[in-house]
Amino acid sequence: MAGILVTALMLFLIKKVCEGEPTVGGPDRVVDQHGTNKLVYITSQWALQLVNDSLPFSRANSFCRSQFASLLTLNESENHEDLLELLRQTGTRSSVWVGQSSKPAAPSKQYLQISALSFPKESHEGFARVNISFPALSAISMCVRVQWDRDWNDVSTIFSYAAPVFTNEFQLRGQLDVQGRVLLALIIHGKHLPYKASFPNDGAWHHICVTWRRSGNHWAIYVDGESKDTGSGTDTNRDIHGDGILILGQDQDSFGGNFTEPFFGNITDLNVWTMGLESRHIRALNSCSTLSQDMLFKWSLDRISSHPAVKEVQTSLVCPAAYPQVELQDCRTLQGWTNQLPAWGQTECSNLLPFVCRSTKERYLKMKQMSESQSVRPSAFMNHLMMLSNRTQPILAQLPTDLNNLAQASVLLNISAQALEHTPQGELQPADMVSLIQLLSLTADIPIQPPTPLENSSQDGVLELSQHFVSVADSIICDENRLKWQAIKEVVNGPMDVVKSIDRMVTHLSPHLMSQTDQLTITSPNIKLELQQQKLQEGSKVSSFCGPDTESHAHLDCISVPPQKIQDLHSNGFYKITLVNTWYGSLRPLFNPEENITMVPTVTDGSQRYLGTFLGSSVVSTTVLGDDQPVSMAVNFQLQHRVENSLGTVYDPVCAFWDFDLSPETGGWWNTKGCKVVSRHYGHTVCYCNHTTNFALLLQVYEAQRSPENEKALQVLTFIGCGVSMCGLLFTFILFIAVGVPKSDRTTVHKNLIVALGVAELLLMCSDWASDNRAACFLVTALLHLFFMASFSWMLVEGLLLWSKVVAVNISEDRRMKLYYIIGWGVPVLIVGLTLAVSVDKYKAEDHCWLNVQTDTIWAFVGPVVFVLAVNAVVLCRVVMVTVSSAHRRAKMLSPSSASKMQTFDLTWAVTRPVLILLPVLGLTWLCGVLVHLSVVMAYVFIALNSFQGLYIFLVYAVYNSEVRNAIKRIKEKRKALSFTNCSQPTSFLHSQRVPVSSWSRSPPTPSSPETSETSGANSSTSMSLVIKNESFRKESFVSFSMKQASENQVVQLTGFKPSGTKFSWFDII
To answer: pLDDT tens digit string along 358-407?
Structure first.
């Protein structure tokens, strides 16, 4: 008989209610061999299944979930007509359960004007007394709305009730925790209960209710309609004394006096009842409903006397009352139809009612197909199940209302585990997996009695059930079933459904599992489950939980709660803590590799091409139970990278968790909110998350642009180049200042470019050190943006200055320099300021101290740079044209017969020379940056040209600059002259002579007259000329640009010669 029962129950879980249900677009009644009515109404999108077996609301919801469906919700108006037809066809006239929407529609808010009492922080003496007479109370409920002062951190008393014979009879107080939340605690009969209930200190109004009953000494704290803390047993089983005084805003250290621990903020809507309110009452009160039954005091300022410091104010309350007329009930029902519209109602959740489950049409038809296939041809698993049960024929079982206790569930799990052991590996069929997933879901939700001292045999039974549960779950999520998961993806959301069932089961059974032990471990090949429990005290801490050690040298998958968080629980009054830790080692292959995880790339500097994101580690989870109630806490965890690095691919780890609420219709999705990477290592990553749930590493895949060796070499080359470049820029700047280079617009522009480029390269070298500090990294990014923009702006000024030397511009030098300063410094400041003002949140790359290339912010740098390079390219082309033209004319002048046969080498050199000289200051080497992603050679070229830009400037504009060299020469000549004077004259003679050093014959001559005479003949009123002179040159040295406007012999000359016959040096015009 037992075998028949086991097989019948198991076979039902395989077939469920899909057997014989219709697949047409309308309702159809099917009666099974047990006489149970089942009906499914199929539309173009949905399948509505009416279950006539009445269940409590929680079990109805659990059954729908086990069917991979959901309880029909209120706001699904598109199903109203289908539901009406379904109920009409079945003749159902009773109420049916309906669910709450996971995303409820915006409620019809009520706005309530009400008087309130304001307790200002300027006075610590403010209080208010409620003028009513209190009888002895065997039960009491007090509700109040408070608006906490956001700047007050000390303990505050919301209200205190003191009796003549006992001061601390009943009191509610609060204080801020380390996270800035307001924690609440009750004092009953002098016993201070722990700070657990909380609400955010956001400056908004919050509704607080406290209840107490002498029977069982049960108490509870509700915040905004939800139960936040409950307990029983306060050691003193007596009534609350009567004839007491109720004070708002102060603690009474004596009867009606000695006030301490004041409250600061606003209080309103205080009401007192002489009964213990239930959850449904408090939810209604939170929505501004009223409850007059057993009311002792109703809010009225006429019955309150207050201290002069307390002010009466008017405030507006927002009441979230979507259905105020039925808010005093618990669970929602559909009571019937009025004028073709649904009539909603509510009743106690423990009542037994039929219900309607809704699933997609595709999911229902797929389940029906699996059920029919299993009925015709049982799988190997089913055959073993029937053999173990001594049955040869499948029997369709009754609806699962019998599966409502742990004993039945344990039998089913035990027989299933045995059948799985006898089933050959890899022969578990998709229909078998669906049935087992349903079994796990139903078992996890079986109602269980509150924790009581259990017999050892009962404890062993709970442990055995848990072991069978984990064993069955392990068989489902093993790697051999990866293809089966793809086959059932139309029915089951994914392997995380199994994880959710395990979480629910362990949390549900943890009080029983840990009643006689402090640590429990259940292991299987792919799952490791561990429970730790301890009483909290000073210095309490819990050990880390790690997955199985598969390789002795590998880093383990571990998770832990920081010790400080454990101490915070103890400080807040928690008595014991239970940690439920789980490790899943085989989930990664079960996720469809073709379904790329949608996620914003973390590498935002544009250095790598993003390919996609996938699960790249095991999954670990931690659930923290404080006094058997779930508590969200921060955790640290490290996970191994379970992926082989392939050639040409780079992986970037992202810390994430599975959020079941993110996409409820698909079972959830990965989320990264509240998680961050602490450190990255080869083969594993360390993470931190500010909450508890199921965690994993997501690996973002990038196409490797360069090998790690090349990447390292380029980084070293950049660092060395920037260091050499900074030294070159520094020496150049010092030479410009120290050797007395004649002041000119040319040298002034050079100096500004050197300063901007030097600071930019210094910041670039320091950017890696600042990346660990978010504020410092943001500042470095802004400064890098500013000084690189300034560098390019002064490169633009260099181009404009060169243009003015080639083409005459009628503007004075003073006005021109003012314009140059505006372009060089004013424009970069304006660009950076506007960029920060417009996109400060998207300004910086995620992990680098540079602009975010994934947004339009990068164009605040790229756009101006492209403009500068375009302008300077035009300038360079113009200069090359002038140089080639001058070379032709010089060849013709020196050897007219061979002018037409100008050698190719001379022409090439005439083009190449100005390009090589002008590239450092015009910034045209940055054009190579466009090509760095095409070849690693171009990357080396780009870094070599730009990292060593300062060295180029030093060589071109300092070492080989004629002005600098002549200034150094003058200094040497003066020192030589002084040295000669000191050696040839006595000291007294030197002091008596006043002849300046310049009168010595070794002084250089002044070349002004000869130059003027040589160039004056070439000038006229119809021509423009530019003579660039160097005061240290001899009179034969000159450079002349001549652009005549109307002449047959119009030429643009660029000539330079010295007595020795040396050719023109381009450095003389730069």
So the answer is: 998 999 998 888 888 877 888 888 888 777 766 554 433 333 555 677 78
Instruction: Give the three-class secondary structure for 598.
Output: coil
pTM: 0.57
Burial class, 768, CB count within 10 angstroms (exposed 0-12 / middle 13-18 / buried 19+): middle
336 within a domain of the structure (yes/no): no
* CA 212 – CA 218 distance, rounded (Å): 6
pLDDT tens sequence across 435-452? 899 889 888 888 776 544
Q: What are the residues whose beta carbons fall under 8 Å from the beta carbon of 799, sequence distance 6 or more?
A: 868, 871, 872, 875, 876, 922
Could you list the beta-strand ranges (E) of 500-648: 519-523, 527-535, 545-546, 558-560, 576-584, 609-615, 619-626, 629-631, 635-640
If asked whether residues 52 and 137 sit together in one domain, one would say no
How far is Cα of residue 571 from the mean position of the Cα atoms in its chain?
30
pLDDT at 872: 85
Number of neighbouring beta carbons within 10 Å of residue 914: 20
Q: How far from 1030 is each of 807, 1027, 1036, 1051, CA to CA, in Å?
A: 20, 10, 11, 24
Query: Is 554 part of a structural domain of the chain?
Result: yes
In this structure, the answer to whether residues 316 and 199 fall within a common structural domain is yes
Closest by alpha carbon to 440, among 62, 50, 3? Answer: 62
Q: Find out whether 49 and 17 touch, Cβ atoms under 8 Å.
A: yes
Q: What is the pLDDT at residue 790?
A: 93
Q: How far apart are CA 799 and CA 811, in angstroms?
A: 16
Using CA atoms, how far residue 748 sits from 742, 751, 796, 814, 1032, in Å, is 10, 5, 14, 12, 19
Residues of the chain scoring pLDDT < 70: 1-38, 74-78, 100-111, 233-236, 320-330, 340, 389-403, 449-458, 550-555, 573, 593-610, 645-648, 702-708, 807-813, 847, 891, 894-916, 920, 929-935, 980-1070
Angle between helices 859-894 and 774-806 (to 10 degrees): 30
| In a shared domain, residues 49 and 128 | no
**How far, in Å, CA of 133 to CA of 244, rounded?**
7
Query: Quick check: is 411 in a domain?
Result: yes
Alpha helices in 665-773 (DSSP H): 708-738, 745-770
**Beta-bridge partners for 333:** 97, 345
How far apart (Å, rounded) are the C-alpha atoms in residues 689 and 675? 4
Tokens of 118: 């304001």
Which residues are CB-neighbours of 463 under 8 A, at least 6 positions away?
513, 520
Amino acid at site 602: T
Same domain, 841 and 924: yes
3-state DSSP assignment of residue 205:
strand
Q: Degrees (nearest 5) of the Cα angle 704, 705, 711?
A: 95
CA atoms of 138 and 160, how far apart (whole Å)? 18
Domain check: are 163 and 310 in the same one? yes
Its domain, for residue 315, covers 110-321
Backbone angles phi, psi at 558, to 5 degrees: -135, 155
Instruction: Copy the structure tokens of residue 34.
Output: 């047990």
Give yes or no: residues 933 and 958 share one domain. yes
Give the chain's domain count.
5
pLDDT the model gives residue 1065:
29
The H-or-E segment that residue 187 falls in is strand 181-188
